[in-house]
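tool=predict chain=A
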Amino acid sequence: MTETLTHVHLIGIGGINMSAIAKLLVRAGVKVSGSDAIISEQTQELTGRGIHVSIGHDATIIPPETGLVVYSSAVQDTNPERVAARARGLRQLTNFEFLAEWSHEQEVVLVTGTHGKSTTTALTGMMLAESGLDPLVIVGSRVPAFPDGNVRYGAGVLWLIEGDEYARHFLAFHPSAVLINNIELDHTDIFPTLDTMMDAFRKLLQQVRDGGLVVVNADDRNVGTLIGGERRALEARGVRIVTYGYGAHAMVRVSDEGIRAGEQTFLIKDEKDRLLRARLSVPGKMNVVNATGAAALALALHADPEAVVRAMNGFTGIWRRFERISDKDGVLVVSDYGHHPTAIRATLEAARSFYPGRRILLCFQPHQHNRTRQLFLDFIPAFDLADVLILVEIYDVPGRKTEQDAAISSTDLCDAVRHHDADRFCKRTLEYASSPEIALEILHRFKRRGDIVIVMGAGDVYRIADKV
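tool=predict ok
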């Protein structure tokens, strides 16, 4: 594909996946330009690499030599650059449509699921690389082990890609292998019901190539329902199914967990009854599950078991996934991307398990009005393990809310949590912040030596974490 391209223009180039595409194109010798609404770490990094990035969208900034326009799903049809591209007859693809077309001759491996995709993708990529399989890896985060952060260049046949379910992006691919970590209702502006989300994952399984591989979490009820309905059809096409989890029915099984000296230890028994003794320096049961899923996938792709263990032992986490920003003056500051009630609860449990007895201050910014309204009742108890709770006003995502959605506010969530606390006879500090900057002022007021401060959300609240 790149042989026919001379210049590609990326709209929304600062997105984590879009910036990875920009790096891949430049490495392939294709000239790249792009635009984004705001300056970010990603846009600054790309500018530093010599890519021309315009801040703000304008119909006149698409270079004359452009042969293809790639746009983020956050970019609307009415974006002036997309309108100009249509007027010029330029071909336009979403970022995942582009990746699917560019990688169609490769052995594409997708890591999917509502939670844990980035961590599982990063771990799998490290395991495959440590085994000498040299995969190309694209992750929806920045990985310290990868010099280029969100992408790892590889000369092997495997292309490991974090598969996004939003807008059914993962259906652009016909992968050789798929991992499904879990399925839970999310992206309610796209999936009004769990059934509609299950249908998307069902379609993905149907698109796995004949003779391919499906790796699934045996402990997740919705994944179990999905694979139970599709097993016969998959096996008829020669697709191998590997399960992992805690249950005795799992083919790759985790057991003997322990926590000591700031790390988790556990055993993984693989399909050949080999015992892998592993440790993780990142907290939480969810990360043990992520690591086990990564191990099951890597081993099924012929990774070396010793290399799998080395990768787990050396894993220090990734950007905005329980990322330790600072630990000084007796205060640990953590930045986390969690934006779903289940992720909030799991992150707080992880903090409690690693740092027992310490007070937890949670500063949470809900992401997107529709999600906040649709999952409102699930959000209320998700904060129970926080000793101090600061709720920042909802991060607005243009084009993804209805008039009914727009009426919801973090003040409504604050009131509901206050009533919930009263019902359970809980007294704690609960504050509303109209912006991340106000939240920072509140954190400065309440934090004290010994505290764990967690700055959480998928919007822009992470920017205050290094100022706490």
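DSSP finds 15 helices and 21 strands in the chain. The first strand starts at residue 7 and ends at 11.
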